[in-house]
Here is the input.
Amino acid sequence: MANKSVWSDNRFWQRSATWITGFASILLIWLTFDTSAQISMGTDEDIQNGVKKKVPGATVINYRITYEMDAKRGHEVPVIGGKEKFFGRDDWSEEEAAAMLHLGKLGSQAKNCMDCHTLLGNGAYYAPDLTKAWLDPAWGPDGSMQAMTGKSTKEEAIAEFLQHPDQYPTHARMMPNLNITEKEAIGLVAFLKHMSSIDTNGFPRNFGKIKGAINGK
Amino acid sequence: MANNHLTSESKQLATWYLTFAAILFGAQLLFGLVAAIQYIVPGFLYGILDFSIARILHINALVVWMVFAMFGSVYWLLPDETGIETIGIKAGKLVYWIFVAAIVVVVLVYLFIQIGPASDATIWFITEGREYIEAPRWADLGIVVVALTFVANLFLTGIKGKQTGIVTVLMADMIAFAGLYLAGMFFTDNISVDQYWWWWVIHLWVEATWEVFVGAIAAYGLITMIGAHRKVVEMWLWIEVAMLFGSGILGLGHHYFWIGTPEYWWEIGALFSALEPLPLVAMFVHVLYDWGKTQGAQDANGDKNSVITNKPAFTWFVLNAFGNFLGAGIWGFFHTLPQVNLYTHGTQFTSAHGHLAFFGAYATILVGVMYLAVQGKNGIKVMKNTKTSIWAVSMISGGVMGMTVSLTIAGYVQVLVSRAQMGATWAGYFDGQNGLWFTQAMDWRLILGIVTFIGFLLLAKDLLTTGKDPVHER
Here is the structure.
């Protein structure tokens, strides 16, 4: 053993592996604390005081949400604007909004949404990404989806579609009927609107800004 | 079983685990075919077995067969490594049946109940609706019990018997593997928090603990199949552990680019995940180097025979060394930088990488262990490739590679049309999906999926019959 190099010594590599793994794990745990604090859900007070949270509180459904280029950060960010009616009201209390979001999040799992769609870009690729679906021009006042359902607001149009997706076929690939009740549909729309307000560091890029090659900028 | 050459109970149990794994592997491919057909004929089984359900079964069968085969691999190598019979075999057998029964129930619920109302009861008894770990909460708890029993057996045996480097690595690795599952077992309304912890399970399994597991199995395979020097192999193993955990743990950051997490994950995720291919290169070099070294030493002694005592298993092990590097390393690196990932995230690019990585890094080596078990069970000294073995490995690896290329092309269409050109909206999504290149890629994917499935049938036939083939040396 006298002339053996440390580089061919198993003990050396075993210790190195242990130290490197330990160091990486501790760094990850430390970053997890920092990230957890940053992605905890905000409150109604935060929204009223203009405190920017990565994940705003559930009462964000009372407000207009847009997705705008932030010159300093170099990508788009969700912007919470003035009040906007959601199913006829813009004064949903913190409890009411939280209950709707809770039902919607539960519903998104109970119906296996993520096994056709992507949420925040994660899931299956058989159907469109839902990260900013609330902001999709197709559901807006001039959008084809809203027109198809015959409803006069975005939230009612989405809720109607979710309850009877098989009655509104847009493509050969159709969403199946998932027995979504009216209450669940409202919850799901709240969940979608809330998700669109999450600061996803600019993903997806240019969402809803381009109308297609012919009408594009 | 007649003519069973296994005297070790641990190895007997290993064959149970490996057999059920092979059955689930078949189920995985079958439901994959259903989903692949639905891309081309959307009405196929619409309202009966929708894409979401076919896909759940496709990816859950994948995860579960690999976990089964991993448990089986450990039960297989433990007596060889520790020099003693595995402790707690009775408990191991009991939880095997619990595990199998639970999986049958979960699959039946997926198939026939599929979804539930938006309530806690659905999360507990039908589906958790989170990709890869959809299994309902009761099954989660069952999996924890099963995993803990397995880890306990491994630890008790490892502590009492000879503690080789391979066993030490497996002990450390498997406890992390079992523990990480706990991160995926709670419900939250905050989807960013949800996905943060969900990735702890998915990423830290497949890009950290499972990779280290593969390193340990490859090390065992080199020692048993080509007689590589244990000291050298175990030194490589420790270096691989250092590199895999050193890059893989913080490489987790590449899943935190766009889920509501802070921007600093761009730099951390990019840096560490870009390093992730390095250990995979090392593993590839290591396998080929040891092979060449032992063969060369034997040649120098004037013995021109092959050093390999199990040709089909070694074929799969070498395929693993290369497939891991290509599928996990290269295809992963393609889209791991945030500048690229902004456009590729959530497209068929991910799917292409997923197919080649799971196959190259895990399916290959686990099939290799199945061949080792066939060899041991039938008391074969030198196991040769049969025509069926060669057809099976060629069709499966060619099929998966072809599917990967097809999905990569489909991913390019999505990136260019749906994302870059159309800005990721509903309309943009379908413009991409209806593009000629996309639809043709999906046709090829199905054709090559069928090739893969035929290859699997040949593999199953080979595993069942080759043991009795007189071509092998006994």
Q: What stands out?
A: Strands of chain A lie at 63-70, 75-83, 118-119, 122-123. The helical segments of chain A are 10-39, 44-48, 94-110, 144-149, 154-163, 182-196.
